[in-house]
Amino acid sequence: MKNLKWLVISMFVLFLVACSNESDEEETEVERVAPVEVAEVTEGDLEVTRTYLARTMPNQTTPVIPPVAGELEEIEVDNGEEVEEEDLLATVTSVENGREFEIEAQADGVISGLNAKEGGMVSNSDPLLTILDLDTITLDLQVTNEQLALFEDLEELNVSFEKTEDAKSYQATVENIANTAGETGLFSITLTLDNEEAGVRAGVVAHVAVPEKVYTDSLLVPTTSLVEENEQTFVYLVNEDETVSKVEITVEEMQSDITAITSEELAAGDQIVISGQLTLADESKISIIEEDQS
């Protein structure tokens, strides 16, 4: 009887241990489900650009020269002020006969280079000021002979005036590509830009984006999806059973947000992991985080 009692107790203990192990295994299995964010593989073109620096210049400059040498009686404008053709700019009294002469604007534009003061003497051979036409601005690029090939057949280029990636860009027109190099051995490329929207001044540095290479009909994935191991690159492909497969890929061109790749195991429309993949392995169980939950 005593042996039977101990047998019952032993079986009960074994039952509790088995239940405990089963519970631990279930908890372990739940813990192995990794929360991840996913995105879709797409197909398209990826353009690689090279940035060149250019300096903005007025499309036209109109020097204003007094009709006579004399004393500058009145100045009606300041540097940076916009004027229209025939606006009164200044009044000069001739040193020869004391007559007053009014100086009018010969074009629309912005006043620049005005250094004279009222009461000072001015010459009739040197400009009193210059009127800059900034409605359209000119940009001048200097490139090497080898770089000229990048500009062939280009009619427009994107231009920005800030170095940040999200800087607003404007379209400039390619007006002229020099056939001969200048004294520095570089070739000049002239662009024009309608300045009504940009509103930039002369002398500002412009960043000109020139297409260097285009990858056409490539598979495109978010750069955040890439995992590098032992000089190889992988992404995690989401399977229908909510597991992942580790897929090796070849990177054609990597940019900060998008990467062009080749792979025999991926196709446009496939879902890949873009966040949380660093804890994954082949056939790992995942839980997809929807956008409104992130």
Report on the architecture of this protein.
The protein is mainly beta and 294 residues long. The chain is built from two helices and 19 strands. A six-stranded antiparallel barrel has the order 2-9-12-11-10-13. Strands 6-5-3-8 form a four-stranded antiparallel beta sheet, with no helix packed on it. Strand 10 (156-160) and strand 11 form a beta hairpin. The protein is elongated and about 100 Å long.
Secondary structure elements and their pairing?
Layout: H1 2-31, E1 34-40, E2 42-64, E3 70-75, E4 82-83, E5 88-94, E6 100-104, E7 109-112, E8 121-122, E9 129-143, E10 156-160, E11 169-177, E12 187-194, H2 195-198, E13 205-222, E14 227-229, E15 232-238, E16 244-254, E17 258-262, E18 271-275, E19 286-288
Parallel strand pairs: 1-19
Antiparallel strand pairs: 1-18, 2-9, 2-13, 3-5, 3-8, 4-7, 5-6, 7-9, 9-12, 10-11, 10-13, 11-12, 13-17, 14-15, 15-16, 16-17
Comma- or semicolon-separated keywords:
single chain; mainly beta; conserved putative lor/sdh protein from methanococcus maripaludis s2 fold; OB fold (Dihydrolipoamide Acetyltransferase, E2P); 19 strands
